[in-house]
Design a protein that fits this description.
- The structure is a homodimer.
- Chain A is of the alpha+beta class.
- Helices cover 25% and strands 34% of the residues of chain A.
- In chain A, strands 1-2-3-4-5-6-8-7 form an 8-stranded mixed beta sheet.
- The interface between A and B is large, with 41 and 41 residues.
């Protein structure tokens, strides 16, 4: 697959491929994000071992997660996990999840990681990226993905048990990668 | 979770929970079905070990597959695998895959297994069933699922690499379980 992209996305932070040594900083973010129960399906009590497997391990289809981090100096301020969305006949579609450290939100880190992931997926030969599980009430994420070229291709009714709002809809979002610059 | 449903669905065959001893008959079906490259994402060269893990193992979210078979006497004529469609906050949505032995198609076995799975999912507390990956050109399946109360809630463009037709669309199909009889 060649070397992963390594690009500086702002004057102060960069997106690079994670190594095993980065796990503690990633886990800090993962564990905090899932406490909300409003963005990811992962339960609040997901263990560190489970989380590592989900984010850096074999991935749900055994095709492997590739994990990236946004770093500001030595601080891991965001992370994303890039996978194939399906097995063999669906492996040309990418999938990714993104998490930003709570102290670093609103700085464009999610946007930069998404741009990085689109380029990386294209470099690896994927023709599109699909998000299977965007919580419809997470309007900040929905709007960001739309700004990044994704459209809502499906609505799964009441498929998310939100920690405060009860059952809410899930959006399935998709974009092709033809126009992604590399 | 209590004992799984065990119901006779036609005069000559029944749907029951599979045991490890049923694997050879299930594998015969699985291996044949994936050779087509026109219905499932699993590659034609999926190994027996991989297949067993996918169909009877931990499942893609580690929440476990529950495997059922349709039996005509001692012959396994169909099989389905019932799972949760997501982790914690999405675990109230069921997911299933169905396969029928090539010599036993057109006899209503898929329909009976689907009905069985809907009742079983409801019994286990799921509120809906979602199919994430129905190949749009598999009109027989699409029509059957529609007849079984599913609607197309999303279209994922060109997300299946069909062995003969190239990139074709994937349908995401869904139904609630409120009206399923138990």
């Amino acid at each position: 697959m060649g070397a992963a992209l390594q690009q500086r996305v702002s004057p102060s932070w960069e997106v690079i491929q994670a190594t095993d040594a980065d796990w503690p900083g990633i886990w800090e973010i993962f564990h905090d994000v899932v406490q909300g129960g409003d963005t990811y399906s992962y339960a609040a009590d997901t263990t560190e071992e489970e989380a590592k497997n989900l984010w850096m391990g074999a991935g749900k289809y055994g095709t492997g997660c590739q994990t990236f981090i946004a770093k500001d100096g030595d601080k891991i301020v965001g992370t994303y996990s890039l996978r194939r969305n399906h097995y063999g006949h669906g492996a040309h579609v990418a999938n990714a999840g993104y998490m930003v450290h709570k102290d670093y939100r609103g700085q464009g880190i999610a946007r930069a990681m998404c741009a990085h992931s689109l380029a990386e997926a294209k470099r690896q030969g994927c023709i599109s990226m699909q998000f299977n599980y965007v919580v419809s009430t997470n309007s900040r994420a929905v709007e960001l993905w739309q700004a990044m070229g994704f459209t809502i291709i499906g609505v799964s009714p009441k498929s998310y048990r939100h920690s405060r709002l009860g059952f809410v809809d899930i959006y399935i979002m998709h974009r092709f990668l033809d126009e992604v610059a590399q």
